[in-house]
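Chapter review: from sequence to fold.
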Amino acid sequence: MGAVLIVDDMEDLRFSLASLVKKEGYSVSTAADGAGALEIATSSIIDLIFLDIGLPDTDGIRLIGRLKEIVPDVDIVMLTGINDAKTAVDSLRAGAVDYIVKPFDIIEFKSTLRRIMQSRLMGKKALLETREVGLDRIIGTCEAMRRVKETILMASEVDAPVLVTGETGTGKELAARAVHDCRNRQSGVFVKVDCGTLSANLIESELFGYDKGAFTDAKTDKKGLVEVANGGTLFLDEIGNLPISLQPKLLRLIEESTFRKVGGIKDIQVRVRIIAATNAHLEDEIDKGSFREDLFYRLNVIPIILPPLRDRGEDVLLLANYFLHTLKKELKKEISGFTPATCKDMLQHSWPGNIRELRNLIEREVLFSRTGWLTLHGLNCPATGSPQERNQEIVTLREMERQYIEKVLNLTSNNKSKAARLLGISRTTLREKMQTDQFQAT
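The token string follows.
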């Protein structure tokens, strides 16, 4: 569920924010001062702390380090009425992950809460991914995906054929594997056949096998993938590409659970679950005469329709955070997360390549990232709100740090040694930061 701690000396604000957090489905604790915050952190499991910068008994920025000693992996968001770059940079250095300036509205607070908690959830999920099977691997909480998960569970309880449809990149194979994995009894092997990559000459022998002497190169008997899948699941990806000449043979397999090898004279009995998938409209292929209507109806006993990513709302952010945490681990990169403006852009992007496009974009950004925050330059989203509002959204902690360094460089007439001393960093670190971002000191 996730646990949140709100630390602020204003009782009305603590109460209001606690109510918002509860409505979002998280447990919440509150404290009016630093001592109370430390006591709660010592005795409770906390995921996220909203911390006021000005507390009666201590400075909020100084308190960050003490809280981190108690709960090293906690995320901390500063609450402050001071809107300047130095305060943001000091918070960032102390270990905060974000910064909200008072007065803030409910939408801003909820957006920050959801973004950080979803990121933490997907981070935990990424760590457990090798142990996850079935529905655990399907990420999504929107209504359409809830219906998909319900259908998968229902399909897993019976042996009827399943037809998974959806645009390219929506996760059709993942859904098929979930049906296979969710079976209550031993589900056997999962065998995938890509009907779109095998030639018409090869697909029959790959699917059904052949007897010795069936054709010139048939020196020995070969077991086909249907036989390999006996007792398990045969997944026919891009079923719309299956040659029309082979469709009656597949239809017989579904209806009678028997088939013959190429060149064979005896029927072979199998018990195999058929799951097919397509990004094509098979009804159109039926009208063209390239797909049999009777086969379509036999495959479409249990339809699973996967929605495009553009229709899945905030599932986009769940998936983005899951991919980010997975790729951080794989590529050994230190990435803090996505900027608030980037999260908004991801929600507005049309995602023509769906989940596959999202993962590929994040992988490229992680590979080439030289900062702690991802901005996903590959997105082409229309700007929303006024230019002033848009600029306010784009100012991340990283950019505020750059602005502060530029200001110090200007004050020191671009004397990097003096600027480094004022900033409290080494000259080498300053040079590295200047190489990472474009500075405009004059």
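Two observations follow directly from the output. Residues 84 and 400 are 8 Å apart (CA to CA). Residues 143-306 form a domain with the Rossmann fold fold (CATH 3.40.50.300).
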